[in-house]
TrEMBL record, chains A, B:
Gene Ontology MF terms: CoA-transferase activity
InterPro entries, sorted: CoA-transferase_III_domain, CoA-Trfase_fam_III, CoA-Trfase_III_dom3_sf, CoA-Trfase_III_dom_1_sf
PANTHER family: SUCCINATE--HYDROXYMETHYLGLUTARATE COA-TRANSFERASE (PTHR48207:SF3)
Pfam families (alphabetical): CoA_transf_3 (PF02515)
Record key words, sorted: Transferase
The keyword Metal-binding is assigned to this record: no
UniProt name for this protein: L-carnitine dehydratase/bile acid-inducible protein F
Length: 420, 420
């Protein structure tokens, strides 16, 4: 299904795509729901891991999230891709017994229940490692597995706020009475899922490498901590100087001019022209060459001090042009710029298309679905979309037969009992 | 320096911290600068890898970024931690020869020059693999290593815009004439660096595991693609329905009420109360119990349709209370909430402190520096801060002696020549 290798004659890479998928040979059990844990396992599955997703008979609620067609979520087609869906009732003794038999066949378990929940269900790490002593267990939670606040209810937007991200995603103090803005997606959940994928592979490497220790490890990822880890100098600067980092709206507190500017056709175009040569080029375009090297504008610190004036004057010019015309003029002057891409812009971008980062994926319900490709790209063995998000329990018979040797009659009986 | 193990009697983890660091035995050469590649290697170093950072004699410019004391960046204390700094002039033949000798001793090279730049310098992957055939090479770039747009200048804010993040980080259309907001940090660079760390560990696992293929792989991470990969249902929904996902300001387009609300003391508090029981609790607190189950408010879809009215009415109440009083009342009613944490709030948070996610780190120049801890947390072998960001070239003699067996006299001669 993946034709990137063929599509990339200009790759200039060191090898053609000839190796096995990066994570072939790895088997992961997901007992997750919503965004964080399933995003982690999507990344592992995209690179070739066999991910078995355990779902209750009602299914992961994310199957109903976002825009739907005939009750099927379009997002699920991408979020659930490359995974095998198996329904198991975790509340039944027979269900838990099946989980333990599956765990014995897996390298990793990824889960995102509230801390302690799996243990309450009789599936704590010590129980899981009773059947698989070197099991890597990844927990993704709002605040971590321990500590005084571990059991607070986890909501993505609240985790992002506690991580320090929300306060900084706002207009500069005094600019507007509007609330700080949420990034349009659950970015904290996805970053936590990515950290979990990193931690899982790190633990597997130490466990499995020649000279490694063969030991089980626990990957404890908190949404709040995942966000806080990306806050750059915020903590060091506060600790040493008592300085509380402040939001800067569309700009950057330490560089000018760089912002998103409005166009005649109601779009936004990013312009980054805070170096001396770029500032000179931009002022020439804008028709204010007199500011080049002028007092108050001769250096980045001076321009930062006058950033509001500068942004108004640049904005007055950009408002006279359509986004297309503005981008064309900026490109002609080699000034770094870009429209603030919408879904339509991303879908049409030739660079994304050339690299297979935007691709049509066959889906048995939707025909094809437009999806994002795999990150990272591994040219010697690119990730592939082997199948789109599966139906609930689509692989129950296949997985229980293949991994546990259950006969169709046994599986049917378990379904009758409501265990599957 | 890491005292988490001791500080976590309530850990409830399956093992005490007794194992070797997760990435002990791994050696990484960083030929990077600014944010993305150095963030990738920070994550690897935090988990115990030996990261050798190659810097020009002028040093990585990031050493001068952000707030400084005596010309030293506070952020660098965290960004550079746990790495060994070695100065090498890549433009000199002797410098390149030293790099190749170092590469022969490393498992991984992480770089973030413009695509093709290293090859131009005579350090392309094929050359590096001439001395280390199974070398994992991670490239972090703005748009990827190939494709028609690979060589555009990479700026973080522009990469985030092309990834679709900036358009969605804004007030709802028609709300305000203000530009879409930049997340207060270079989030795209950090996400790309995290993807690179994940990819590196995935490639190392397949190379080094029993039954693995022992093969070199390339990890090609683009900032734009890293951001786009987190856009959830944006592409599938656009492709199938032509629907262009729109920003929703502080709220969520599909849930209400959930937003950041203003307080009497000029702060913002997140409240997430879009389920029926939470909505009822909140309306009781706000003093509008009549809306519970009332037409227009009886279900989440109805509330979404009336979200502006609802947010105004909630905001009118929150404005009468200080953030502390508001949070206390919401907590008393078990309504999920949080202040939009500032640097000061993050620094003081007891959960972060209990988990060592906010910690004082010894720094020879600053005394101690407040830093974020390690993500992920691995209780059996927690990451540690072995040392804060090193001085430029602090480990040149040590590394060239230890890894290449150079004698002090040889090293001094190379310094005289300006190679080091």
């Amino acid at each position: 299904m993946d034709d990137r290798g063929a599509r990339r004659p200009d790759a200039g890479m060191t090898q053609p795509a000839t190796l096995a998928p990066v994570l072939s040979g790895l088997r992961v059990l997901e007992i997750g729901h919503f965004v964080a844990a399933p995003f982690c396992t999507r990344l592992l599955a995209d690179l070739g891991a066999d991910v078995v997703k355990i779902e209750p008979r009602g299914g992961d609620p994310v199957r109903q999230w976002g825009e739907m067609i005939d009750g099927r979520s379009l997002w699920w087609s991408m979020h659930g891709r490359n995974k095998r869906s198996v329904t198991v009732d975790l509340k039944s003794d027979k269900g838990r017994a099946l989980i333990l038999r599956l765990v014995a066949e897996c390298d990793v378990v990824v889960e995102n229940f509230r801390p302690g929940q799996l243990r309450k269900m009789g599936l704590g790490s010590e129980v899981l490692r009773g059947v698989r002593p070197d099991l890597i267990v990844a927990h993704v939670s709002g605040y971590g597995q321990d500590g005084p606040g571990a059991n607070r209810a986890a909501f993505g937007v609240i985790g992002e706020a506690i991580g320090g991200l929300r306060y900084l995603t706002n207009q500069a103090p005094g600019t507007a009475d509007l609330p700080p803005v949420r990034v349009g997606v659950s970015i904290g959940d996805s970053i936590a899922g990515l950290y979990a994928a990193f931690g899982v592979m790190a633990a597997l490497w130490q466990r499995d490498r020649a000279g490694g220790d063969g030991r089980a490890r626990t990957i404890d990822v908190a949404l709040t901590e995942s966000v806080l880890s990306m806050m750059e100098g915020m903590l060091p600067e506060y600790g040493a100087l008592g300085k509380i980092k402040q939001p800067a709206g569309g700009g950057i507190a330490t560089a000018a001019p760089t912002n998103a500017y409005p166009t005649a056709d109601g779009q936004w175009v990013l312009i980054a022209a805070n170096s001396e040569p770029l500032f000179a080029k931009l002022m020439t375009l804008v028709g204010h060459g007199e500011l080049i090297g002028a007092p108050g504008y001769a250096s980045n610190p001076e321009r930062v001090a006058n950033v509001d004036t500068l942004d108004q004057l640049i904005g007055a010019w950009t408002r006279t042009l359509s986004a297309g015309e503005l981008v064309a003029r900026l490109d002609a002057s080699d000034i770094p710029n870009s429209k603030a891409y919408t879904a339509a812009d991303c879908a049409a971008d030739p660079q994304y298309r050339a690299r297979g980062m935007v691709r049509e994926v066959p889906d048995k319900h939707f025909g094809t679905v437009l999806q994002a490709g795999m990150v990272p790209h591994v040219p010697e063995s690119p990730g592939t979309v082997r199948w789109a998000g599966p139906d609930l329990g689509e692989h129950t018979d296949e997985v229980l037969g293949e991994l546990l040797g259950l006969a169709p009659a046994e599986i049917d009986a378990l379904k009758q009992e409501g265990v599957l």
